[in-house]
Amino acid sequence: MLELQFYNWRVPKTCRFPTLLMPFYARSKRHIWRVAPPSLTFSVPRNKLHCQFHVRCFKGSGRDAEGPAGREHLVFDEQSLEAELKNAIDTENYTQAARLRDELRLLQEDNRARILAANVKFYKVFEKGDLNTMRMLWSKGDNVHCIHPGAGCISGYDLIMESWELTFGPELDLPLQIDLQNVEVFIKGNLGFITCLELVRTSGNNWGKQVATNIFEKVDGNWYICLHHASHIAP
User: Fold this and answer.
1) Distance between CA atoms of 195 and 179, rounded to whole angstroms?
2) Cα 68 to Cα 93: distance, rounded to the nearest angstrom
3) Which domains does the chain have, with CATH numbers?
4) Helices 78-90 and 94-128: angle between axes, nearest 10 degrees
5) What is the pLDDT of residues 28-82, one digit of tens each?
6) Neighbours of 188 (CB within 10 A)
7) Where is the SnoaL-like domain (predicted)?
8) What is the pTM of this model?
């Protein structure tokens, strides 16, 4: 069943579907289509939509559909876009290729902004020693790993959360101050990683240095950390 998401609750009485290629970034401020097959080029009365499509409505204004906040309801696949772009180039459909190229760049920029925001949030939570929020930032399951400085590899969500509970124990002088330097990002599809230098002030004017790698995976449109590896750097 095709799923359509109308962002504005004032769905027009007649909904026209232009010829599109998946995925589609809607230009209209009145509503957003999540997906649309390339063959649809007809009008459907609103009262018949539920007979043919699964429709989800979100109350809001046109402004809500703009920017990253509005795009979070859109599901796009980078690999599908790349495949469509290659096909457009191979068939010498350069107009379509240019559009797909722009959509791919927009998706990549959005993913980059989101994974950077997830990384910043991770360190803000680290600084505060907020265990409850830390639980929400990690991907669930046994495929997650954490390597604290000077320690071995901890695998599995539950054991990792236990390690953070120990890290945030009473002997840790909270809040910390963590400054990040040399931040680099790489993203491919639903996986991305960030490397950075952590400068951590533990107490007084004492600073520790760690080089860190954080790997994130995209689940249901959100980025969750699935690996944190930090190693001490000798002063």
Assistant:
1) 13
2) 29
3) 1-75 (no CATH), 118-232 (3.10.450.50)
4) 160
5) 333 333 344 444 334 444 444 433 333 333 333 333 434 444 443 334 577 787 8
6) 11
7) 115-234
8) 0.62
